[in-house]
Amino acid sequence: MIFIGERINTGFKAIKEAVINRDGDVIKETAIKQQKAGADYLDVNLGAVSAKPEDLCWMIEQVQDAVDLPISIDSNKVLMLKEAIPMCKKPPLVNSTTADDFKLDAILPLIAEHKASVIGLAMDESGSPKTVDARVEFAGQIFAKIMEYDITPEQLFLDPIVMPLKFMQDQAKEILGATAQFKLFSDPPCHIVCGLSNISNGTTQKKLINRTFAVMLVANGLDAVILDVNDEDLVNAILTAELALNKSIYADSYIDAFRS
Amino acid sequence: MGIPELKENWKNTINEVTIGATKEEGGTRCKTITLGGQSTLPFLSFEGDLPNKPVIAGYVADIVPDWPDVLKNAIGKEINDPIEWAQKNVEEFGVEAINMRFLGASEATKNRSPDECAKIVEGMLKTVDVPLILWGCGEEEKDNEVLPACSHAARGENCLIGSATETNYQTVVAICKADKHKIIAEAPVDINIGKQVNILLQDAGLDLKEVVMLQTTAALGYGFDYVYTILERARIAGLQGDKLMASPQLCDIGGEVWRVKEASVDEDILTGWGALEKRGPMWEAVCAGGYLQAGADLLIMAHPKAIKIIQSTINNLL
């Protein structure tokens, strides 16, 4: 499983204040905490705090000063990406593009040039899909487009678009169905990722719902996830699901070994 | 749009483990051996890097093992003296390391004392210039005395010490850390225990880059396929990014093959099986050749003819 830590996001108050006050320590601490918990990538999200590329670059700098993990740049703005991608020490993951041609044609050349990876959202600007078929169609468009730019399936992370369970209860099984189909696009397959916490938006049992749906997604082929990597029960459930699928080798101390 | 690359692109490389120390490195060896370092499966040189060839270590024991005459005669009278046996292994059989087992330390055999064992190690270090792999007699209580003595006698020589198991690993880790040796992590034909032993070694403060994994070797016809699939699965997991499985692997071919009837009983009893003189070494060579394909990096071998066949296999394939 590729764990993408979601906590360096100005949606969280402490991070927002850190960016406004240019207080690098808060960002560094959050980065180190996620690395210790087993993150493979750290998502960096400037959000609506600023539209200046230098603010995003400053955040990335703080993270890279503290840890040597690759960055997931949480922006779909080409101007931002043009500044942020070259300053990443390791090939970053760009989070994200929709299936719209104008978006893909703007972002994919950057991905190809820097050997980066990209999250492709199975939706277009008209909105989120409602069915398995619509998701597969959008994902297929993205897949065809990466081939044109000589981007390999390993550089693509397809996102089936997770919807809140509380408000769109019928969507969960469509998301799972799409996940299973994305895996069949190629061999070797592309990665399949999602922003997990969307599933529990507005609910009173966030952690339990995240954990349960994560296991179901893993069973359907999810191999990357944007999550709160410091939620130990959630990470442990995913590690265990991967054992049950024989994707990793069991050892009595498999939980401790993950964090050592 | 280019034609997609069909080669497997593994994420990880197998750890490189060097055994033996030269004068500059604080030992007295003229040669060292390096295991592992691969970025792909065995012999697929078109697909990745295979920086180090598999290595053959010659089997030596401090008493004559319970082996058929076919093997004892092929080794010669030197089998009666561990130091001469080691010397013949290096000079005539062309092995790159010596695997020394103190079978005579067992109460059931000679009950040799730790001091006597240590003296043999000292003598061997003076006589042969290749790296040593050192084992006790396989009885935990006695080995807890024998291994520290042997390890200390070879301090700084960067030997490979056998073996750490799920229950005795702490003693062996302490020895290896104190005298600067590498360690064999052993599991009983069980990939899950193999991984667990590596976790325990890591928790005990050992760098996994100092570890060679051993899944108790099975002779051809006696569970060979179980061990083969474990070696292969461990290697694939290691290449896929499971750092706990990315250690080089060891097989004790000589120690296992000559215990089975197919390699030790002649055709007066096994009618139609062909002359033992030819069959015995072939049994050892075929077993070793199979494990090479599964991902073995270090083979312990006994019969000079089998050693020759496998040396040529390795050189032909790499």
Would you mind describing this structure in some detail?
The complex is a heterodimer of chains A (260) and B (318). With 260 residues, chain A is an alpha/beta fold. Chain A is globular, with a radius of gyration of 18 Å. The relative contact order of chain A is 0.12. Chain A folds into two domains: 1-87; 91-260, TIM Barrel (Alpha-Beta Barrel), CATH 3.20.20. The longest helix of chain A has 17 residues, at 132-148. In chain A, β2 (41-45), α3 and β3 (71-73) form a beta-alpha-beta unit. The mean pLDDT of chain A is 96. In chain A, α6 (132-148) runs parallel beside α7 (171-182) and α8 packs parallel to α9. Chain A is 46% helix and 14% strand. Chain B is of the alpha/beta class. Chain B has a single domain (17-317), classed as Alpha-Beta Barrel (TIM Barrel), CATH 3.20.20.20. In chain B, 41% of the residues lie in helices and 14% in strands. Chain B has eleven helices and ten strands. Chain B has helices spanning 69-75, 82-93, 114-127, 140-153, 169-179, 191-203, 224-240, 253-257, 261-264, 276-294, 304-317; strands at 17-19, 33-35, 55-61, 97-101, 132-135, 160-164, 182-187, 211-215, 249-252, 298-301. In chain B, the strands form two sheets. An eight-stranded parallel β-barrel of chain B has the order 3-4-5-6-7-8-9-10, surrounded by seven helices. In chain B, β5 (132-135), α4 and β6 form a beta-alpha-beta unit. In chain B, α3 runs parallel beside α4 and α4 (140-153) packs parallel to α5. Chain B is globular, with a radius of gyration of 19 Å. The two termini of chain B are 34 Å apart. The mean pLDDT of chain B is 96. The chains are: A alpha/beta (260), B alpha/beta (318). Chain A binds chain B through residues 147-148, 150, 152, 154, 188, 248-254, 256-257, 260, and chain B through 1-2, 4-5, 9, 191-193, 195-196, 198-200, 202-203, 233-234, 237, 242, 244-245.
